[in-house]
Amino acid sequence: MTKQSSPFANAKGAKTVTLSVQSWVGAQANVAVAQYILEHELGYRVDTVQVDEVPAWDALSQGRVDAILEDWGHPDQEARYVKDKKTIVAGGGLGVTGHIGWFVPTYFAKQHPDVTNWKNLNKYADQFKTAESGGKGQLLDGSPSYVTNDKALVSNLKLDYQVVFSGSEAAQITQMKQFAKQKKPFLSYWYTPQWLSQQVPMTEVKLPAYKEGCDADPKKITCAYPTTPLQKYLNADFAKSGDDASEFLKKFHWTTDDQNEVSLLIADKKLSPDAAAKKWVDGHRSTWEAWLGK
Fold first, then answer.
1. What's the mean pLDDT when you consider all of the chain?
2. Which of 70, 98, 231, 276 lies 20 to 30 Å from 127, alpha-carbon distance?
3. Which tens digits make up the pLDDT trace of 13-61?
4. Res. 1 pLDDT band, cuts 50 70 90
């Protein structure tokens, strides 16, 4: 992180902004559009630092990055840095609502409608087996750094499954596309919004209902993931500076469809993040002009 962080992050009066960019493509889409507008409309130089979710909070607190544009909920970090140390401030909602869950391809759910209830998952464990799942059904996860309760859920719900990490969102997408191409069954940790869902329709498996506090002890968890309005966070000194960049990022607010549009251009159409951002910016002038107060 030290080598990657910008020497200008958190520097008073600097026309440079450093943004944390997480490894999934939705987060890359946010940063690409924010970066494009900061550079082309406001005259900033933008540095980006790719860092995992929890270390990103540490970097933000220390001023090594100025903003996180998509947080999926980290109550421990929020309590430490926002409430206690006051080194980070809330930057407002992103406008996108995130949801993590377990999903099967819709073609399999149509053939076996009862698979959408977690109580029936053991019945299908044999069909979800892979070479990596050790004789059990495979629950495919992405990066181990993502917010996941899956190992505890499998154990506590007494499911005959093995969590298998693909290593990254890109690797997970590759595997899911391969399964879908062959019309094979699979069970996967997945989230919305995500552009792949437009190409590989998926149906959620209903876990025991989420209730406030049911995930307080990660080791004892037996409930579904919450639905999370995604949030932005800013370094406190950067937010208080009142400069054009901090005010713009506080106002940055778009829809799931907006994010998916840019994500699809990056991940599926293979445009560079800058080219994808330009395409979106050219077609949505009224949306982003409002972020600039025009």
1. 93
2. 98
3. 568 999 999 889 999 999 999 999 999 999 999 999 998 899 999 999 9
4. very low
Distance CA 114, CA 26 (A): 31
- Helix, strand and coil in the chain, % to nearest 5: 40, 25, 35
Pairing type for strands 88-105 and 187-192 reads: antiparallel
Instruction: DSSP letter for 118, please.
Output: G
Nearest by Cα to 39 from 278, 285, 255: 278
How many whole angstroms separate alpha carbon 75 and alpha carbon 194? 23
**Largest pairwise CA distance in the chain:** 62
Identity at 182, one-letter amino acid code:
Q
Length, in residues, of the chain = 294
For the CA atoms of 111, 116, 118, 119, the dihedral, rounded to the nearest 10 degrees, stands at: -60
Separation in Å, CA 162 to CA 98, 99, 141, 239, 274: 25, 22, 10, 43, 39
